[in-house]
Design goal:
Largest sheet of chain B: 2 strands, antiparallel
Radius of gyration of chain B: 19 Å
Distance between the termini of chain A: 34 Å
Structural class of chain A: alpha/beta
Radius of gyration of chain A: 22 Å
Strand content of chain B: under 5%
Strand order of the largest sheet of chain B: 1-2
Helix content of chain A: 40-55%
Structural class of chain B: mainly alpha
Oligomer: heterodimer
Number of helices of chain A: 15
Distance between the termini of chain B: 50 Å
Order of helices and strands of chain A: HHEHEEHEHEEHEHEHEHEHHEHHHEEEEH
Number of helices of chain B: 11
Chain lengths: ~425, ~300
């Protein structure tokens, strides 16, 4: 267990943080210099980093379906953040542990239990499969340890499953449906056929999309729930073709989406006048599909390596180490780790409530997000991007795959706090 | 329009066609398994990995050696089949005298090693293999759009299935093979090199898996995990058909493709389970499988 006392309050209290900062400043500095003291605390003797080490555990799928979107590449992004910090904060070393959760909530939960009990871990990063994230964040809440979820999609992670101990960084199903489906309906794509992966994530995405489509004046003319995973989509694509819908929406992910798109291309779905909408597609999926198959596809992403000078510069560094361009999840792992370590430096503490409160009051301004804010429910709200996959003739390189169609402001993209089911904010907003 | 159970007849024709194509594919993979089990009594759990290796060999051959699709259809099965022969000589032969279970465990371990190595080298997202120019496009049938490549898969798979059945059931070499597995000592006494035939048979089974892999490469993303999900279905097909029955594997493969295709229309949620439901029913009524001989 951590040596420092933790706030028992569910809501990270800004007041308690200020008091603790002021008290600490008073210990080492003359009265009146509290503010300066806080700013300079990086250079002052510390006592609040438990066992004199900041320990970060990286938990992700390292070998299965989600390996390429997070996996070893995400671990490297985390290590880049630690290296950019020189391997230490306020003179205390940063240690990184990692484990493969094999997409199993049980394995993930056991690993994190072990990390907390035996390793005195301070923060858990990565967290990809939604089922694993929900199981792990529950343990983090019980044991009062911090978690930053970067890979998971389920918007419930900061809605009904919110805790004061975790932050959801990169994206969730709400902006995916809201961004892609709304943009397409606005452009006249008002009749939809949905191909849904038959499990919790697919159902959640399906209902989010249905809501967005019907609220914006569109109709769902048909849907089919396919088993997860499915390798042959020909039958479903034929059903989608027969439905006469203008848009065929893919409420699935990973290999299922890639297979569905490949099959749609073989059956000439787009040539016969229908359009495809991918609701959760990562850079590695588009890369695997190839532009020939994926061209013209619209999707929503939390980040893209080729957005601006800053993203390109960071991605180039990543590319040189990994020989792949980073996905939004990998970039988010770097960004969230930097934000966490900055908060540790600023508060000179690895206490969960203290660091969480500091992270919450500091806007996120880095290569991943500009003016990002962490809400009380743990949602990091930042701009999302509606992008369109380039045609092979427009692409200038292997990883040059998206045109940014529109930036979706964070407040418009994410679920408003007023609609939240999160116990920490219910009735507020 | 004529309707059957609420589905227009034309749509149903389309689905039957797709089921047949998938079925031909299952038949091809099951055939390799059945040949290996029928003649060698090895439960080849590496079959899915060998199928994946076929697809990967085609992809890497195209990327690094400029190997085109048509050449890959011939070269890849030979190369992967040769790898199979090496596996048989170095590993499988040493446990031949043990229970079948050891062969299953050994090949399963090998499959995991192949998959794990390729995951580490290439990741899991896989890569796309283009459909050859001559087979792109499709036919507009009255009831569906049939991609040319899928039609080709159906024809190629059926031709190869028939050729293998003919080789084993109707030629002198096939007769030697069957005799060699029934009574190796006796056949050896006639001056026939039984160990060589065993190696070649395993090589043939593996080559069939690799051939299916090359056929699949343009259809699905080529990824290290592409074989593992398919393998279980293919095993179910072999069990339904009767372990080791060549004709059983082919006919059951086609039938299961069609049953699965129909399930996708009427109750898609059950599409992945329907084959196993059939397997349970068949095993209860005919424990040796539809075409199997009672032990």
């Amino acid at each position: 267990m951590h040596a420092t006392a933790r706030s028992s309050s569910h809501k990270p209290s800004l007041l308690s943080l200020r008091i603790s900062l002021a008290l600490r400043a008073r210990r080492v500095l003359p009265p009146g210099a509290a503010l300066v003291g806080t700013l300079l605390s990086a250079g002052i003797a510390q006592a609040d980093i438990s066992d004199d080490t900041v320990k970060i555990g990286y938990l992700a799928d390292m070998s299965g379906t989600y390996r390429d979107l997070a996996g070893p590449g995400g671990l490297d992004a985390l290590k880049m953040a630690v290296e950019d910090f020189g391997g230490s904060v306020n003179g205390k070393p940063i240690e990184v542990l990692s484990a493969d959760d094999r997409n199993s909530a049980d394995v993930g939960a056991n690993t994190v239990h072990g990390w907390i009990d035996q390793q005195n871990i301070d923060m858990v990063a990565g967290l990809v499969a939604s089922s694993v994230s929900i199981a792990v964040t529950r343990i983090l809440a019980e044991q009062d340890t911090l978690g930053i979820v970067s890979g998971s999609a389920a918007s419930s992670i900061t809605n009904e499953h919110c805790t004061p101990n975790h932050i959801h960084w990169v994206y969730d199903t709400y902006p995916l449906a809201n961004g892609t489906a709304k943009a397409i309906v606005d452009e006249g794509g008002d009749s939809w056929f949905l191909l849904t992966a038959d499990y919790a994530f697919g159902h959640a995405l399906e209902s989010d999309v249905e809501k967005v489509v019907t609220e914006n004046g569109g109709t769902i003319v048909g849907k089919v729930r396919h088993p997860f995973p499915t390798s042959d989509f020909s039958s479903y694509i034929l059903q989608a073709q027969g439905s006469g819908a203008k848009i065929v929406g893919l409420a699935n992910a990973g290999a299922d989406t890639v297979n569905a798109l490949t099959t749609a291309s073989q059956f000439g779905l787009v040539q016969s006048g229908q359009s495809l909408a991918g609701l959760l597609i990562f850079l590695n999926d588009v890369h695997a599909l190839g532009l020939n198959v994926a061209q013209g596809l619209q999707l929503t992403t939390g980040w893209y390596w080729d957005l601006n000078e800053e993203t390109r510069a960071w991605s180039q560094r990543y590319y040189e180490r990994n020989e792949r361009m980073p996905t939004m999840v990998q970039a988010g792992i770097y960004s969230s780790t930097m934000h966490y370590l900055n908060a540790v430096v600023a508060t000179d503490s690895d206490d969960t409530a203290t660091v969480r409160a500091k992270m919450g009051e500091t806007p996120v301004n880095d290569m991943f997000a500009k003016g990002g804010t962490i809400r009380a429910d743990g949602r990091m709200v930042h701009d999302m991007y509606l992008v369109k996959v380039k045609a092979p003739s427009e692409s200038k390189g292997e990883w040059d795959v998206y045109d940014v169609v529109r930036t979706i402001p964070g407040e418009e993209a994410y679920r408003p706090l007023a609609d939240s089911q999160c116990a920490l904010v219910k009735g507020q907003g | 329009m004529t309707m059957i159970f609420g589905i227009p007849l034309m749509v149903l024709f389309g689905q039957l066609m797709l089921g047949l194509i998938n079925g031909a594919f299952y038949a091809l993979l099951s055939l390799g398994l059945a040949v290996i089990f029928g003649l060698l009594r090895i439960i080849n759990f590496a079959h899915g990995a060998q199928y994946m290796l076929g697809a990967f060999a085609a992809l890497l051959g195209a990327q690094y050696l400029g190997l085109n699709y048509w050449a890959a259809l011939i070269v890849v099965p030979l190369v992967v089949g040769a790898l199979g022969i090496v596996m048989e000589r170095l590993l499988l032969r040493r446990i031949q005298h043990l229970d079948h279970l050891y062969g299953l465990l050994l090949t399963f371990g090998l499959a995991l090693i192949f998959e794990g190595t390729l995951v580490n080298l290439f990741g899991v997202s896989g890569s796309s293999y283009p459909i050859p120019e001559a087979l792109s496009g499709g036919f507009k049938l009255s009831f569906m759009f049939l991609p040319t490549y899928r039609a080709w898969v159906l024809v190629a798979a059926l031709v190869v299935c028939f050729a293998v059945w003919f080789l084993i059931e109707r030629t002198r070499l096939g007769a030697y093979l069957r005799a060699g597995t029934e009574n190796p000592e006796l056949v050896q006494a006639f001056g026939i090199n039984v160990p060589l035939m065993v190696s070649l048979t395993y090589g043939l089974g593996v080559a069939l898996a690799a051939f299916a892999g090359v056929l699949a490469a343009p259809l699905y993303p080529v990824s290290p995990t592409m074989g593992s999900s398919l393998l279980i279905v293919v095993f179910a097909v072999v069990v339904i058909g009767g372990m080791g029955s060549i004709l059983g594997a082919i006919l059951t493969g086609l039938a299961m493709g069609i049953i699965e295709g129909l399930t996708k229309v009427f109750y898609p949620e059950a599409a992945n389970t329907v084959i196993f439901v059939v397997m349970v029913m068949v095993l209860m009524l005919r424990p040796a499988g539809l075409f199997g001989k009672e032990a």
